[in-house]
Predict the 3D structure of the following.
Amino acid sequence: MARITRYSKFEGELDQLDSSELMQMIQEALLGQGMNDPYDPDPNARPSMDDLFDAILEALAERNMIPEEQLLEAMQSADIHETALGQQIKNLMDKLQQDGFIRKEFEDSDGQGGADQTGEATFQLTDKSIDFLGYKSLRDLMGGLGRSSAGAHDTREYASGVEMSGELKNYEFGDTLNLDTTATLGNVLSKGMENMEEADLVIRQAEYNSSAATIVLLDCSHSMILYGEDRFTPAKQVALALAHLIRTQYPSDTVKFVLFHDSAEEVPVSKLAQAQIGPYHTNTAGGLRLAQQLLKRENKDMKQIVMITDGKPSALTLPDGRIYKNAYGLDPYVLGATLREVANCRRSGIQVNTFMLARDPELVGFVRRVSEMTKGKAYFTTPQNIGQYVLMDFVTNKTKLVN
């Protein structure tokens, strides 16, 4: 309520609203599925400028930020775009472009961009916008964990990956030689440097942050938006938060994203926020196979797959490229091929941590088997708490004590 009260000063002057505050207000709409048909999803759907107009209008209305006279005029008008309120919303959209949060694009009837800007206008989120949404998602999720800030764990000052913890101990064979000069000299000055022994050495214990390569497997099959619950938007928020965390706090790490549905494809983080639900089935084996191919190119201490899904494997890519599908039950053919990919992950030293957004008995058994095979972990979560589980798991795996 405090934010709504604060915005009361914008009555009649909504175009003075700061772009970053506006982005925060429409975050859910930008990441959500409201711009697609949940019953016939189009993975290639792109939000239009009209969609953006509606998202801003709804955000303003929810926060009681629209002056009564403008709201009344808009309700009585045949075209809200031509009202004073409509013009102010257009000004806010222009400001988002000027401040570098969105990029307006045009498509002509042939699907090609036209210099004359004919056809329906769409928009793309810029790198600045992706970074903002990632930071906002990370801050919200870490706040839910009781952290004071998203930057509480900062490793950028330690290029070697070692962060001093402050505790001293006598050196033992095999320890990393993080020598504490003051304590060591205190042990040897009284007897002379020439008489220094191994027992005189004192080291400062440290935490070692291993370099990691992470592939986030995001299920974007039809079930992720069915049954009255949007599970895909929270999954994307988690992915953006993880990308921001790694970029700012663990710059030696890498993270890539793979969407899986009837098939699987890599998607750059710049396209992740506007990714849509894809075709209907769940090709888990295809996603795992592509993730392994991407991880083979990485030279990191730790390689892991973070799989976020809500359904059982129900599709498989055949050797000739055709897609075999069976949405009824846990198909032995599909299951066998999926578990073979899991076994390949194990042989390659890749850990698979699964975050399951459903609790069907068949799924529980499948997820536990995957976790046992790769010595990974299984979490049965909800769209409301999945972000906290993913981030806690990542940070916990990243840090181990080195004596």
